[in-house]
Design goal:
alpha+beta; six-stranded antiparallel beta sheet; Rossmann fold; 645 residues; Glutamine Phosphoribosylpyrophosphate, subunit 1, domain 1
Amino acid sequence: MCGIAGIFDTRAKRDVARDIVERMATVQTHRGPDEAGFHFEPGVGLAHRRLSIIDVSTGQQPLWNEDQSVAVVFNGEIYNFQSLVPELQALGHVFHTHSDTEVIVHAWEAWGEDCVRRFRGMFAFALWDRNRGTLFLARDRLGVKPLYYAVLDDGMLLFGSELKALLQHPTLDRRIDPQCVEDYFALGYVPEPRTIFAGAKKLPPGHVLCVRRGEPIGETREYWDVHFAEEAVQSEEVACAELIERLHESVRLRMISEVPLGAFLSGGVDSSAVVAAMAHLSPDPVTTCSIAFDDPHYNESEFAAMVAQRYRTRHHVEMVASDDFDLIDTLATLYDEPYADSSAIPTYRVCQLARKRVTVALSGDGGDESFGGYRRYRMHMTEERMRAALPLGVRKPVFGALGRMYPKADWAPRAFRAKTTFEALARTSVEAYFHTISVLRDRERHALYSGGFRAQLSGYSAQEIFRTHARRAQTEDPLSLIQYLDMKTYLVGDINTKVDRASMAHSLEVREPLMDHELVEWIARLPSSLKLRAAEGKYLFKRALEPYLPNDVLYRPKMGFAVPLARWFRGPLKQRVREAVLGDRLADSGFFNPGELRRMVDQHQSGIKDHSAPLWSLLMFEAFLRKVVDETGAGVAPEPIRAAS
């Protein structure tokens, strides 16, 4: 795994600022501590920070083709590179390394922009073709690896693996995008393609950007999307057998490494399935890493131990205190943008543990989105049956009124939270799902924002992100629709972002077999009844795994990777929450209604209501303002820069 960065002059061949490119690489040293590589020529500067995984001795970057006309800086892995090499050699290309990186430059020469369609892996790369005067940026299909870019007013294009690389350039427009503040308080992250800063963007998953010097900069182009189109299966038994075969193939591809390799083992279905497959494929015991919590409500370690014992893995467990909240400022610096998933804390810790033992770890991320594993999917499908019984014109006024009148009951079991159900029934399917997953609901965000900030938003709602993706989903199946929405938003903006930053903070490469695009495409074609059946999510996956995993692992209630926020905010973090949420930094931002901030803090700390999720979002936003905006000079208009001599 690596960090990439660079500057490209889209208009002429002006010299790029070497010191800026070098800083762009240096701030990403955690992504690649082994070595740095640079290339400069008129109008181009490329930088690479390397974490050596494959072809440790000769895989340095930037890596060139035979005549030194095409160079690439690359973050990720091309898992099928070994099968592409002979095909490219047959076309006359000569390889000088055993690195998957070299496949990229020759594939570009052979197939041009379509080269990305041939790659099976996780990747973000920038390719410079001198003869064509072209910079080509590409990101993998499911957004496992990040890629940020910006086009400055003077025509310089910046790119980097993390936003902090772009922030090294003084002319980047660092003003905070108001719409992204709305997105964040709705979703807990800033979704693609925008970033919190007006001048920077994320390259969306499954997209490329091809920029030719002297030509107008066009739009990004999509080269892949997942299509949910049900196909008949011969039988459940046949489908189970094929699923296991495909899982093993995906895991096998991700076990290629010249450095120590292991796996995360949480005790959940997905990570346990990956470990079982690794044990089947490896002649040696698998190294597994788990964290245990001292609070039994959040501790899954006994289930991880069951799997470790069954497969005789080299299992490593570390205890994490339930009051492990000293990472708040660290996380704000890592993510560069406001990020409110509190499971970032245990994810950071398990990556820290794993790096003591291995350099590469396989994870189970992506299984819930593909196989239909989230509890919210079951709730949504129950609501869908109710929505189908009455037209929206009837539901909206009736259930809308009931939702407004019914008291909020966060303390009650979910089945008795009628207010939330009534509100969902008064909406369309897409609006209802957005309502379900929102950190703060529409009315809560409206109350949170100051009048001035609401005016600045001019009626914009983060809900528009879901509507945009829904229009492209090409499915009428209600489960497939929300799976598609999650793959475009939550999986990329939350899950993949969390794992990438937490792992890279410790120079650890994480590979996700359940996000193999060929596996995801196959699962998307399965009938929804094989994913969610009655109250059982991941129906086919669990059935296929019955010979490999204990029933206690497969069929126990899902716990998730959570931390006790509600208790923290009434106990050890009580004063910090008050100081952060009610302090000068949030007040000075102008985004918030001070009365609403005080009401939320007082109600939560007195036990009247549980506002833990919104308060965590505010706490992390305040940390972002202090650690990123204030310390880097972000949040301001571009500064002038002296032209290079």
